[in-house]
Design brief:
Cytochrome Bc1 Complex, Chain D, domain 2; binds heme C; mainly alpha; two-stranded antiparallel ribbon
C-alpha cells in the first residue's frame, strides 16, 4: 500500500511539473478553440480546404519576428480574404476579449 501511495505522489508531482514546463502552446485547447469557432470548416493542419493549411501558414511566417502579431490581426480584424474561386469575403474575426486563447491558437498554428 505504501508504495502505491508513493507512486501516486510521484505521479502527481510529475504532472504538475510537466504542465508548467510546457506553458505554451496548449495544442488541445488550440484545436478545441478552432473547432468551436468554425475554423475547421476552412482550415486543416495539412490539407487545403477553403483556406490554406496551418502547415503552409507556419512555413510562410517561419522566422518572422512579427508573425504572432500579424496572425493575431488576421484573426481579430476580419480582413478581406480571397477564396480559390476568386470571391472575397471578410475573414472570421474573433473577440479580442479572448486574446489569451487567440494567442495560444496562433502559437499552435505557427508550430505546425
Ligand atoms: C469561410 C472560410 C474560413 C473560415 C471560417 C476561417 N478562415 Fe482563415 N482563412 C480563409 C481564407 C480564404 C484565408 C486567406 C488565404 C489567403 O489569403 O491566401 C484565410 C486566412 C487565414 C490565416 C492566414 C493564413 C496565411 O497564410 O496568411 C489564418 C492564420 C487563418 N485563416 C486562421 C483561421 C482561424 C484560426 C479561423 C477560425 C477563427 C479561421 N481562419 C476561419 C478562410 C477561412
Amino acid at each position: 500500500m505504501k508504495s502505491v501511495a508513493l507512486l501516486a505522489t510521484v505521479a502527481a508531482v510529475f504532472s504538475l511539473v510537466s504542465a508548467s514546463a510546457f506553458a505554451a502552446p496548449d495544442a488541445e485547447a488550440a484545436q478545441k478553440y478552432a473547432k468551436d469557432n468554425g475554423c475547421t470548416k476552412c482550415h486543416a493542419v495539412d490539407k487545403t480546404k477553403k483556406g490554406p493549411p496551418y502547415t503552409k501558414t507556419a512555413a510562410k511566417f517561419k522566422g518572422k519576428a512579427d508573425a504572432e502579431a500579424k496572425l493575431f490581426d488576421q484573426l481579430t480584424k476580419g480582413p478581406k480574404v480571397k477564396f480559390e474561386d476568386g470571391t472575397e469575403e471578410e475573414h472570421k474575426a474573433l473577440d479580442t476579449k479572448e486574446s489569451a486563447q487567440i494567442k495560444n491558437l496562433v502559437q499552435w498554428i505557427l508550430a505546425q
